Amino acid sequence: MDAALVVRSVWEGMEARNWGAVRRLVADDVVVTWPQTRERIRGGDAFVEVNRTYPGDWHITVEEVLAEGERAAARVTIVLGENVFYASGFYRVRHGRIVEATEMFGDPGEPPYDRSHLTERY
To answer: Fewer CB within 10 A of the end CB, N or C, for the chain?
Structure first.
């Protein structure tokens, strides 16, 4: 399975709450880094459990996955009630399983200063 399909399948498996499928697609010794909270998840079981137990009725839409060789990048939207989060992830896939990931999550917000003369809001 190519890297793009593996990454897409993991995110879609989480949306479907198909934890067995997700677990099969991450290596036993996977390392996932979340820079914004300075957390590191070691191991496939821990990765699945962190996501399985995340509170609330969240929903995931995979917007885009790009890959070349064993590297992949994904852009994802996560909706939790009225809250929207955006995730970007960078992955290394070997033998059909994610072995390494860095995922960043962002909240929508207001621009930090008035730059409306240079931008447009959507």
So the answer is: C
| Structure tokens, 10 | 């993991």
Is 50 in contact with 38 (CB distance < 8 Å)? no
Q: Tell me the torsion sign for CA atoms 26, 31, 33, 38.
A: positive
pLDDT per position in the chain (122 positions), as tens?
899 999 999 999 999 999 999 999 999 999 999 999 999 999 999 999 999 999 999 999 999 999 999 999 999 999 999 999 999 999 999 999 999 999 999 988 889 999 999 999 88
Name the nearest CA neighbour of 25 among 72, 102, 94, 103. Answer: 94
CA 14, CA 1: separation in Å to the nearest integer? Answer: 18
Distance of CA 66 to the CA centre of its chain: 13
